[in-house]
Design brief:
This protein is mainly α and about 25 residues long. It is about 90% helix and about 0% strand.
């Protein structure tokens, strides 16, 4: 369960990072 939770956090972090990159590109 801990592993899946960490994986979920990593996924959310990647989504946020990509969102910031998109905002910076505009």
């Amino acid at each position: 369960m801990k592993f899946s939770f960490a994986y979920f956090l990593l996924f959310v972090y990647r989504q946020m990072l990509q969102g910031l990159m998109d905002m910076r590109g505009q």
